Amino acid sequence: MNAVTIDPLTRADLDWLLPLEAACQTMPWQADHFVACWQPNACQRGWALRCNHSPVGYLVGLWVTDEAHLLNLVVAQPYRRQGFGARLLAHFFAHNQETATFWLEVRADNRPAIGLYERHGFQRVALRKAYYRLPDGQRIDAWVMRKDRTADGSAR
Hints:
The chain has a 7-stranded mixed beta sheet with strand order 1-2-3-4-5-7-6, sandwiched between helices. It contains 4 helices and 7 strands; from the N terminus they run E-H-H-E-E-E-H-E-H-E-E. It has a single domain (4-148), classed as Gcn5-related N-acetyltransferase (GNAT) (Aminopeptidase, 3-Layer(aba) Sandwich). The chain is an alpha+beta fold. The longest helix is centred in the middle third of the chain and has 12 residues, at 84-95.
């Protein structure tokens, strides 16, 4: 059986996190994007997901009052479609019970991610035209997605 853990990101995680980010994102974040996760009183927080002690993914979120924004969720290619993204999302929802609304942007052509988010209750609420810029200069639309916590306090 696989031992899966989710722990707060630390500076030491940059050693594996930056190469994974570069391998999985068309416009990868740099180290300074992640550094905010461990600043004192930061609104941005991140978590590493490990399987059998090996890092396989991460999530970074931003909290402002009663809203949370999913900024970055990555699962390494060999571990996709095994429920690791869903585990990170569940952790994101459970992290702050006072969060009323969850937001994210996702590339309009990223069908697997859109499917994951929709299975977890996100709905498409707006389209941002030409939101993401690719390395070759092309622009890709992004869906803005929203999920509201239900009256019973669950984020489903």
